[in-house]
Design brief:
This protein has about 350 residues and is mainly α. The chain has two domains: about 160 residues, no CATH class; about 160 residues. The two termini are about 30 Å apart.
Length: about 350
């Protein structure tokens, strides 16, 4: 038995390229787990610079020098941040506050509707079941209230963190963009010499993930804008808030769009009751999501991330369970990395086997 295990280890882990790949993956995972919270501004700046670098490269292809291209893209980024802080966040904050104020009324109306279900559908619902659901709603409301109170008590700390992010993150983004090649050259000095396989995987994943993330950003804006236009036309309350979450929901493939039907249906129902307007709101949401899934997403992302829908859902479940919200958002890029590593691993083993046979 020991001989079998030893032979298997020698066959799969004796190649320096594979060992270097394993080392880099372990270092990356340990770095995130150990210093993720501490270095979150740095990671945020790296992600933003990674996204903006595509615009810089496009300007460089138009014969614009690197520094002017970086300055232009950075100014556009700052303008977007200012618009976000001056216009969007206050509007979203007001709508969230309004929603919190009417939430008790919504829950009370929902309790009233649920209380009548056993009388209308005695074979499907019982008083005990409705009581459990009602208790769950009350406990949920209490939990939301406690979270809001905790948020208000920690508002000063959150304000300080926000100021730090608003100063440090843009500053680091600028230097990451300006000194990209210097930073990469410095990092290469810490990498193993046997890193050809890891470099191949990086180039493949970089191309796919970069196009995926940039495509998703445009997809969020398009879905957000289209949903807001539809909801504003219908006159649904909290149109900006609902459309914002509808846009963000595309980050979680399939599951996000399905979950958004619940808040849309609830808000529409408690605004209009049993009305054709509720059906219009749900139909509008369904049409936008259908167009997004069958036209917008394929055009923006193409076949860059060529994974079966079942694989995408499994990735969302697995990485969401491991890392919560961030796991849900980065499920597809992480699945792309895992797929690339596995494919390169077996390809390398096949190459080694052929060399040994020759």
């Amino acid at each position: 038995m020991i001989t079998i295990i030893k032979n298997w280890l020698n066959r799969h882990f004796s190649d320096p390229q594979l060992l270097a790949l394993i080392f880099l993956l372990l270092v990356g995972v340990l770095l995130i787990l150990a210093f993720g919270r501490m270095l979150s501004p740095v990671f945020a700046a790296v992600v933003i610079a990674y996204l903006l670098d595509g615009m810089v490269l496009r300007l460089e292809r138009l014969k614009l020098p690197r520094l002017p291209a970086v300055v232009f893209v950075f100014l556009v980024f700052l303008a977007g941040v200012i618009v976000l802080l001056v216009w969007l966040l206050p509007v979203l904050s007001r709508q969230i506050a309004q929603l919190v104020q009417v939430l008790p009324e919504i829950v009370t109306n929902l309790q009233h509707e649920l209380a009548g279900l056993p009388a209308r559908y005695p074979d499907m619902f019982s008083d005990a079941q409705i009581a459990k659901v009602t208790d769950y709603l009350i406990s949920g409301m209490s939990s939301i209230g406690q979270q809001i109170l905790a948020l208000s008590l920690a508002s000063m700390r959150g304000l300080i963190s926000l100021v730090v992010y608003l100063i440090l993150v843009p500053l680091m983004v600028f230097f990451f963009l300006k000194d990209k090649m210097k930073i990469l050259s410095w990092l290469k000095g810490f990498l193993p010499e046997e890193r050809v396989l890891a470099t191949e995987i990086w180039h493949e994943v970089n191309l796919q993930v970069a196009n995926y993330i940039r495509g998703k950003m445009w997809e969020i804006l398009i879905v957000w804008g289209a949903t807001y236009a539809a909801f504003a036309f219908l006159g649904i309350r909290f149109a900006l808030l609902l459309s914002f979450f509808a846009g963000v929901s595309v980050l979680v493939p399939y599951i996000g769009a399905a979950v958004m039907y619940v808040p849309v249906a609830l808000i529409a129902y408690f605004q209009w009751g049993v009305s054709i307007n509720v059906a219009y709101a749900l139909i509008a949401h369904a049409v936008i999501q259908t167009v997004d899934g069958n036209l917008i997403a394929p055009l923006l992302i193409s076949d860059v991330v060529n994974m079966h829908p079942v694989a995408v859902i499994v990735a969302v479940i697995v990485f969401g369970s491991l890392w919560g919200l961030w796991g849900l958002i980065f499920a597809v890029p992480l699945a792309t990395l895992v797929h690339a590593v596995i494919k390169a691993w077996f390809k390398r083993l096949e190459e080694v086997r052929r060399i040994e046979e020759a």
